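Recall from the previous lesson that a structure prediction takes nothing but the amino acid sequence as input. Here we apply that procedure to ATPase inhibitor, mitochondrial from Psilocybe cyanescens. The sequence below is the only information supplied.
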Amino acid sequence: MLSAARRLPRAVGVSARLYTTGRTEGSVAQSKGFNKKEKAHEDQFVHAHEMEQLAKLRAQIEAKKDELSELQKDADAITNKATPKA
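The prediction returns the following tokens.
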């Protein structure tokens, strides 16, 4: 019988990340003014992006309206041809 305890191989080179609980890098990142300015820039970017998407959608709507108008004209022309004039 084996009376000696078996040892498992130990993982070599395992490191743990240590985080500080104090201030993060730089006092500028913690200032309220910086956070407000960053949020304002983000909001401005989002607003501009939404306006761009809205303009594209409006252009697509106009194109579909024009297409619908052409199809309606074609349908009216076919209808007028098919009905005999009395």
